[in-house]
Amino acid sequence: MSQKSSDNGASLSQNGTSAYTFTKEQLAEIEVLKTKYPEVQAVTLPVLWMAQDTFGHVDPEVQRLVAYTLDLPESHVHGVAEFYTQYFKTPKGKHVLDVCTCLSCHLCGGMDTLGYLENKLGIKAGETTPDGQFTLQEAECLGACGYAPMMQITNDVYVNHLTPEKVDQVLDQLASGDTPDFESIPMPLVSTTSNNEAAGGSDE
Ligand code: FES
């Protein structure tokens, strides 16, 4: 399905039903992206990111805009958006707190952390505070099991080894406009001592 552009360069879906539009600059950026991949389907991911950065979410109407812009079936864009939890299918708060409650985090107090945040924010997992500041979500494993319990903030920084004190500190930082420090995870998680050294021998 083709696109048409209004005088100010905003892109409208052919049937004009989309409430969202990309700017002229964004459409130009999308054209550049298309040249970097062998198939236009692959551009779905970065264009969904662009849309989420612009509109704050990729609800069905935004997905429709992406589909029309890339001339792809809406079902394809919908499938990609639904597959990745990092794409917000509904409007979220300014800060999205993804608390991992998968096995390792669960065993290390992930549910306690989630409960603490629910009490502190006065909402349940899946809800947004009335002031629109925080959305609280329960997340599947985020790949930082060795640093449990942990949470990710708005698809960005990881905060590891959570305690109530640390949660308080993070909420204060976010409320005052600061971004908590990213807590990097050293990889790989293997011993630097060789088997031979561990056995008391020499590597030479
Ligand atoms: S179980 Fe929480 S990061 Fe893997």
Number of domains: 2
CATH class of the largest domain: Alpha Beta
Q: Can you count the beta strands? A: 6
Helix-strand sequence: EEHHHHEHHEEEHH
Low-confidence stretches: 1-15
Number of helices: 8
Which helices and strands appear, and what pairs or packs with what?
Layout: E1 4-5, E2 11-12, H1 24-34, H2 44-55, H3 60-70, H4 74-83, E3 95-100, H5 103-107, H6 110-121, E4 134-139, E5 151-153, E6 158-159, H7 164-175, H8 195-198
Parallel strand pairs: 3-4
Antiparallel strand pairs: 1-2, 3-5, 5-6
The structure holds FE2/S2 (inorganic) cluster.
Word description of this protein:
The chain has 204 residues and is of the alpha+beta class. The protein folds into two domains: 4-83, Arc Repressor Mutant, subunit A (Orthogonal Bundle); 95-175, Glutaredoxin (3-Layer(aba) Sandwich). The protein has eight helices and six strands, in the order ββααααβααβββαα. The protein has helices spanning 24-34, 44-55, 60-70, 74-83, 103-107, 110-121, 164-175, 195-198, and strands spanning 4-5, 11-12, 95-100, 134-139, 151-153, 158-159. The strands form two sheets. Strands 4-3-5-6 form a four-stranded mixed β-sheet, covered by helices on one side. A two-stranded antiparallel ribbon has the order 1-2. β1 (4-5) and β2 form a beta hairpin. α2 (44-55) packs across α3 and α3 packs across α4 (74-83). It is elongated, with a radius of gyration of 22 Å. It binds FE2/S2 (inorganic) cluster. The site of FE2/S2 (inorganic) cluster has 12 residues, from α5.
